[in-house]
Amino acid sequence: MRRHRHAKIVATVGPASSTPEKLKAQFLAGVDTFRLNFSHGTQDDHARVHAAIRALEREVDRPIGILQDLQGPKIRVGTVRDGRLDLMAGETVRFVLDGAEGDKQAIPLHHPEIFAAVVPGQELLIDDGRVRVRVTGLDATAITALVVTGGAVSNRKGVNLPGTLLDLSPLTPKDRADLAFGLELGVDWVALSFVQKPSDMIEARGLIGERAGLLAKIEKPQALERIDDIIRLSDAVMVARGDLGVEIPHEDVPGRQKELIRACRLAVKPVIVATQMLDSMVGAPAPTRAEASDVATAIYDGADAVMLSAESATGQFPVEAVSMMDRIIRSVEGHKLYHSIVAASDPGEEETPPHAVATATAELAEALHAKAIVTYTASGTTAARVARKRPEPPILALTPNLATARRLCLLWGAHSVQTEDVDSYEEMTAKAAHYVQAEDFARPNDYIVVAAGIPFHTTGNTNNIRVIQV
Asked: Which of 13, 145, 272, 407 could be 133's S-S partner, Cβ–Cβ 3.0 to 4.6 Å?
């Protein structure tokens, strides 16, 4: 079955959407990749969902991507007296490394890495920034702070430290156990939370190898300072706007989103825009107009994929949320200004033969009004190079590797099919002509453009273009 859109949909699985029936309904409504959020649920829960998705994949005979999202370290206050403290702007509070059931002069904060990194003048944001305090003094076991924005602090509320680089691995013992479990299951992507620096990606890559694609979640301002290196070390990127918006000004998030999408396109890495895209659909059957515009903006920006979180995981209308996102994407991509807007944000390309060939493939297909671009790709690189140009014709990615076919479910414009590799020009032509008809892209006498690497069975060597009349 073919999607009549280019951008992809990622949906988070949760209690509202984890049954085989709900998973199938969401897939038919438009989901390309399912996200398993390991911040919630047990390993057994995720194993059941994984098995159900793979059974659905066999039933519909289409590759389906599965993304494992690791929880990452969570910085939280401890328990406080009576379960709640009401902090007033202007008063002084104290955080302590040890202790429990604290009051305003002894709020437990059991994270020594904070005490080692924070300096006077820096801010601590509690409960997604609802409460803000500024550090005025500290020693090895206590931090004194002035309350800037007052509010309630209850047990185990999260703490953010914008502008503070913490000496903290993004992989907790829980994450390492979950990662080993996910790789054994056979997930296609692993999303790494709490990325601050390039070495975080290197640490995760050492554990994952090539068994899954490594996706960097950009949710810390420290990551933005080294973003080019982080993107280079990743296989894909997620713009995690919720956490990122806590630590940088809200008004800066849209611009950062555009910068990240552009940087990922230049690096030929898929990029997902995530968080609260259709948030009102958690409890309502339709989004606000602002939310519809938010999804549309990500598509006009050229994002590879957009993601549903609580809307599909715990909301009352998970299938309707997917269907709405699908409708918004198709409406945007059908708008008369879409291609000119996306083309205007083209980041250019590296001056190498493979990139030049991919660019020429996309431009030739548009000039001929070709019905499809066929890429022969073992790793997915050829398809990604062509997709970077955001061509109007869809991309039919033929690959001998099922893992590649599943990972391509995140790539803009790519319709992936697992098939045996080709050994000759004649076989390449015949197979391309067969699949564009079998997958409902073209009919006899239509033009298609084929991109491949010669000699065959090589990886990343995009050096050949062929125009074929079916």
From this structure: 145
